[in-house]
Design a protein that fits this description.
Keywords: DNA-binding. GO terms for molecular function: DNA binding; DNA-binding transcription factor activity. The protein is an all-alpha fold. 61% of the residues lie in helices and 0% in strands. The protein folds into 2 domains: 3-68, lambda repressor-like DNA-binding domains (434 Repressor (Amino-terminal Domain), Orthogonal Bundle); 89-121. The protein is elongated. The chain starts with a helix and ends with a helix.
Length: 122
């Protein structure tokens, strides 16, 4: 493994993730890898597969050149100027809540919905 390349990719992924205000768990879920695996990638402990690199580019709104250290942020970004910024509902605490809710059984999700509706009426 090319340790320098792994470190470069990890640092660029971390910078893009924090710029988007995402957690490691958010990105891991979006690119379909375990949170621990994504954390190791950010720390430069592994190189992503080509498929994972492509998913990272898409989810972090960066070019492969930026992740590979060939371009700085802004010059190689895949995000178009016409693309709107992430919505306010995409806050980290909302994403964490959604991850937790997805793991609940249906009866508990229904109960949580009732509680949320009651809180919304206050």
């Amino acid at each position: 493994m090319d340790k320098k390349l792994a470190t470069t990719i990890g640092a660029a992924a971390r910078a893009a993730r924090t710029r988007l205000e995402l957690t490691q768990a958010d990105v891991a879920e979006r690119i379909d890898v375990a949170t621990e695996v994504y954390g190791r990638l950010e720390r430069g402990g592994m190189l992503p597969s080509v498929q994972t690199l492509l998913k990272l580019c898409h989810e972090l709104h960066v070019s492969a050149d930026e992740l590979l250290g060939l371009a700085s942020h802004g010059t190689g970004s895949t995000r178009s100027s016409a693309e709107p910024p992430p919505s306010p509902q995409e806050r980290p605490e909302v994403r964490r809540l959604l991850r937790t809710v997805r793991q609940l059984e249906p009866s508990k999700v229904k109960l949580l919905g009732l509680v949320a509706n009651a809180l919304g009426r206050r």
